[in-house]
Amino acid sequence: MRWLRELDDRTLSPHTGWTRDHWAALADHLLLTARRHASPSHARISFPGEPGGYGPDVDALEGFARTFLAAGFRVAGESGRDPHGHLEWYARGLAAGTDPRSPERWVRLDEHDQAKVEAASIALVLHLTRPWLWDRLDDGVRERVIDYLAPAIGAAYPPINWVWFQLVVEQFLASVGGPYSRADLEAGLALTDGFVREEGWYADGDRRAYDHYVGWALHFYPLLWTEMAAGDPAADARRPAYLSRLERFLHDAVHLVGAGGSPLIQGRSLTYRFAAAAPFWAGARAGLTTPAPGLLRRAASGIARHFAERGAPGDDGLLTLGWHAPWRPIAQSYSGTGSPYWAAKGLYGLALPADHPVWTAVEEPLPVEEGDFQRVIRSPGWLVSGTRADGLVRVVNHGTDHALPGDHRTDSPLYARLGYSTATSPVLAGPHAADPLDQSVTLLDPSGRPSHRTGFDTLLADRLPTGTVVGASRWQAHWVDPDPGAPDHGYGRAGAVTTGPGLTVVSALRGPWEVRLVRVSAPCPFPLRVGGWPAPAPLPSRVVPGPGLDLADVTSAPDATPLSSETLIPWCGTRAAAEPDRWYSALLHLGAATPPPDLALGSTTARVTWPDGAVDTLRLP
User: Fold this and answer.
1) What is the pLDDT of residues 373-384, one digit of tens each?
2) Kind of pairing, strands 419-421 and 440-443?
3) What are the start-end ranges of the H helices in 176-290?
4) By the 8 A CB rule, do 286 and 423 touch?
């Protein structure tokens, strides 16, 4: 969609060129293209491609519900002005999809759990566009919509972000005089309170599950729900806390966008792409002034432009399973042809009118465009480094694995790697997806299989007076023969476990360099291996081994990530068994070339002299 450049306004948007006109053009392009794949009465939108794991009926419902989000945002922000007739077009689909006698009828909430997800999108749009759609539907269609949504009442929902789907649906039902359960609302809200973590973050359930769902679901729905329930004392009382958490979260979130617009490539459902812009628009809609509206738009527009200029949507106007171009391995087993259209959440800003401050403010630079920074994000245990010279943001991970301490599961490439960035993808295909190499510290069993770290204990995540950020974690190395029948939802997998000695890793991060220190807790017959950044060629990535790490090489992984046809993974290790209670060291680099730091390693401390002259002394656990 490079033709969008014709609309660029470098006065209002000096960093991206994007204005509200770009966003509206993107939404209309997606919506008008989707119509070509609709059933005769518009209830099902079946995009081309291999059906997803839930089958074509669910795929078609997702195609309707998720594009309906885009239509709703588009028309709501125009106060009902709808020159393309989006709402009239979708009204026909509502009538047919909720008609149990129609050959185009939708999968119901009591027939397939995925319908519970899509029902929330339908309810949200009906709320946002009520004067121009719901209020104009005939009584029979309204009754059928209520009947379609009603199985949400009393139904079981997984205790993760899905709880918000039930809350949104039942709140809409309550607002239009339909049936609902106050007990469901109270229980669901109480459950979501358990997701709250420090400094504005949420976990997606009880595990250390931190990913883009924090922004595009766990911050997105609460404030919308309070709008739907405005005047209810429970909603009005909760709104200030939701606002406060979102504001604090956004100060972290703007540090996780690269100068080129890429969001962090970490966590499941990455095929939703520019849905990652949703929390920035949520902050604008809520009236937050910090981060400033110009910075919120800069982050959101940068994300959307990143994809629009790299093949998403493609020349055919479609969003496929992939990141930039189509790349099926990025999808989870629940992903189908309609799934990528949850990217519509990233169009939420269109629900705000053209005179809103988020559209009229001049864009402000992202933190990584203003200068180098190091930051600690405590809830997910992330050490963050952004460098202006290359526009990259890197995360060293000592707190996220989508598990609980002590779990012995396989490492998910999307959660349990030691590093993520806005310019690299974890290896998601090929042998090193299941057997960690990139951004890992492993022991190799006699067959050469690497160990896993999921279930680690976080020991440290802090910022030193010099600005260097440091973290540490400890785990029991383990090998897993996973259950072959388990679905792939992007998490680690359980199975038969063999345990080994403990591993402790300490990281110090500054600029493009990480100092990584490793200790094995007990005698073992296993060699040690330290894997670096999985760089798409020609992005430079290095591992500089310290004493005792007498092996070093670069492994080429073909078609292993969505970023390039070849990924280069530097690594180092020991030829023989790792020595117990010895601190090994390696220097890991990603991005613009700078000299490596100097490391003096003692028995209890490590002294690091960084390329910029800063000096740190690390106390070793």
Assistant:
1) 999 999 999 999
2) unpaired
3) 182-193, 213, 220-228, 233-253, 278-285
4) no
